[in-house]
Please model this.
Amino acid sequence: MPSINIPNRRQYGLQIYHLNLVKIIMSNLPNCPKCSSEYTYNDGTMNICPECAHEWNDANPTDNDSDTKVIKDANGNELQDGDTITVIKDLKVKGTSLVVKVGTKVKGIRLVDGDHDIDCKIDGIGPMKLKSEFVKKV
Ligand SMILES: [Zn+2]
Model:
C-alpha cells in the first residue's frame, strides 16, 4: 500500500498563522491606537486590531479621493469649510419655536458627515446643523 502523506491539520494551521503574522508585520500599518498592538491589519477600508478588536479608519486621505464626499448647495455648487451661505427656505429649529428665515446669512460653515451636513452658528439662534439642499453659497 502506498502511503499518503496527509499533512497534520494543526501544523498546517500554524503555518498559515505564521504566514499571516509575517504579512501583518510587513504591512507597516499603524499600531492600534487603543492597545498599541503592532499586529494590526487592514480590511479594505478599516484597520483592525486582532488583539482588542478595535477598528478604526485613518487611511491615507490622498489614497481615498473617491471616498471624499462632495457637499453641494441647492444650486449644485460645491461647498467648503468657511463658506458663507444663505438659507433658501424657512427652516424650523427642531424642539424650539425658532425659525431660520429664508435669506438668513450664515458665515463660516463647517461641513460634517450625516444627514444634516452643515455645522454652523446662526446669529440669534446659536449653533445648529443644516441640510446643504436648503442653502446656497454666497
Ligand atoms: Zn488593539
Residues 9-67 form a domain with the N-terminal domain of TfIIb fold (CATH 2.20.25.10).
